[in-house]
Amino acid sequence: MGRAQNLIEFAVATICGMNASKTPPQAAAATPTGPGWRIDRERAVALFGAHAHDWPIEIVEETGSTNADLMARVKALPRQAGALPRPIVRVAYLQTAGRGRRGRPWYAEPGNALLFSVACVLPRPLEGLAGLSLAVGVALVDGLRSLPVAGPGQIALKWPNDVLLEGDKLAGILIETAWSIDDASAVVIGIGTNVKGADELAAKVGALNADVPPQARGTVPTALQRALPNANLTDTLAAELNALEPALQRFGAEGFAPFQARWNAVHAYAGREVVLLEQGEEVARGVAAGVDERGQLLLDTATGRQTVATGDVSLRLADGAA
């Protein structure tokens, strides 16, 4: 498609979905104030590199979930390797049923968070998708570090699917598989990045977690504005898509193995004591030693090294870990 004028399609219709969030919809839908909170179409096109220019990008005011929207579309495709020649990107300023890993609601005010999903068909069977969320995490770190952020090294990864800024949660990744055959899999990659409003976000999440036991709470949220005062949705979208395109191409061809060293290099908890929780209960404890070629966590415990698949577990720093 190149630099076609209709690269980004701003949908005018509001698409509503079931509200599965704990946040009252009227509170989440508050109108942002101040100039420039929307994505600037012309600036985005100018910032896209050669790769991302070919991706159709839809932007809507509101939807239930961009993941759900694209999952429905991809499930209707023919189940074959060439079913989707190019990834499709869907961005929403507000998701009324946005969610993260394990079904947790994702809270965000319009204009403060970049919420989008990418649908693609990768030339890999289901078992070949191991480590995809980690590869996407590597791409996000590289994309965000391409922005003029203060202390770029403070943007790091927490296993299996969180991007951290100075130890707090900056972005999350949710990957769902629509279908898989012997030589291809259709996936939808959901990404939420907190761009602005860190204090308001932390207060809101803190209120939602008031009745949650401390050990079951997720990482404290933060926003990109903390390291980049003029952070905005437009530049963040361009940076992330520019990094995602080559990453998805390489993952499709080679799997997670070529991303392993890079992931370990930006591992936030490397060499630190961590605990693994399942439904709030500790199931393992040890020193985080990175990930293997399949994206499994390597944990050095009192009884030796263990490998941990993503599964239904959560990772936390052990109490008092430096």
From TrEMBL:
Keywords on record: ATP-binding, Biotin, Ligase, Nucleotide-binding
Gene Ontology cellular-component annotations: cytoplasm
Protein's name in the database: biotin--[biotin carboxyl-carrier protein] ligase
Lineage of the organism: Bacteria, Pseudomonadati, Pseudomonadota, Betaproteobacteria, Burkholderiales
Domain BPL/LPL catalytic stretches: 40-252
GO terms of molecular function: ATP binding; biotin--[biotin carboxyl-carrier protein] ligase activity
Matching PANTHER family: BIOTIN PROTEIN LIGASE (PTHR12835), BIOTIN--PROTEIN LIGASE (PTHR12835:SF5)
Organism name: Paraburkholderia ultramafica
EC number: 6.3.4.15
Catalytic activity: biotin + L-lysyl-[protein] + ATP = N(6)-biotinyl-L-lysyl-[protein] + AMP + diphosphate + H(+)
Pfam family name, one: BPL_C
